Amino acid sequence: MKNHFHAIFPNEDYLDFRPYQYGWETCAPLHSFGPFIRNHFLFHYIIRGYGTLYSHATNGDIHEYRLGADQGFLICPGQINLYTADAEQPWEYVWLEFDGLRIKETLLKAGLEQDHPLYRPLSTEHGHKLRDHMLYFTEHASSSSLHLVGQLCLFLDNLIEFSANRQKMNDKREQDYYIHEAVVYIQQNYHRELSVDEVANFCNLNRNYFSRRFKELTGSSPQEFLIQQRLTNAAELLKSTDIPIKNVALKCGYPNQLHFSQAFKKYYGSAPREWRKQNKTAGE
């Protein structure tokens, strides 16, 4: 009998909310994962059984949490983590890995961050609704990218609504229109030479304050976001067109093809030409 499911989200066009991987697993006794560092946020919801999470706090301390059915836990990008199934009643859980510009503030509304990784629903019924939202991904893995992104938004909305630790964000975080304007400006100008100073000036903000607020709200520095924007669009061009790699580099803000190739390989793990061969859209 199948005791696990795992799928990878194929589309990189969504910036605010994007699922990466999802699945469920019935673990063997004492089955463990880690120590490991994730590149994205990872949320588990425990269906049945027990296990232990060893979570590194921001100050370096390691906290041990004994968890059971109808509880959840969050792992943050860059955080060292280890989790182990119980020897007698190993856990079964569903999990969802995701990221995006709005994810950090969304999780904070649900009371979740690196130093507060445990999730408790308002009731068992609320927890089961959240579980079902997560299992939906495993049952509809062949659905369109837009459909799955919409499902992620529904999951996050319920994560907040059903949280026993729900927090209300302050007006400054909720209504930081300057950073939204900066994101749009970068999206519209990534194809040319663009500096952090220019974006900060466009928003009428001090560069240091701008960079700090941008990272607080998006999880990335302005420069990291600019690179992500350029390389994400480059990947889409490589996948869906036959434009020469030199021209793809130019269209995405890299006048030097060698610099583009180095940045692309660092981000995607393979050179542009190799990545195109592996990901070229059929029929294009």
Report on the architecture of this protein.
With 284 residues, the protein is an alpha+beta fold. It has two domains: 4-161, Regulatory protein AraC (Jelly Rolls, Sandwich); 176-279, Arc Repressor Mutant, subunit A. The chain has helices at residues 103-109, 124-139, 145-161, 171-174, 177-189, 196-202, 207-218, 222-240, 245-251, 257-268, 272-279; strands at residues 4-8, 18-26, 32-37, 41-48, 50-56, 62-68, 72-75, 80-85, 92-99, 118-119. α2 (124-139) packs antiparallel against α3.
Q: What does the radius of gyration come to?
A: 20 Å
SS class: alpha+beta
Beta-strand segment tally: 10
Q: How far apart are the first and last residues' alpha carbons, in Å?
A: 39 Å
Oligomeric state of shown chains: single chain
For this structure, what is the CATH homologous superfamily of the largest domain?
Regulatory protein AraC
Approximate strand percentage: 15-25%
Annotated CATH architecture of the largest domain: Sandwich
Question: According to CATH, what is the topology of the largest domain?
Answer: Jelly Rolls
Number of domains: 2
**What count of helical segments does DSSP give?**
11
Helix content: 40-55%
The main β sheet shows up as:
6 strands, antiparallel
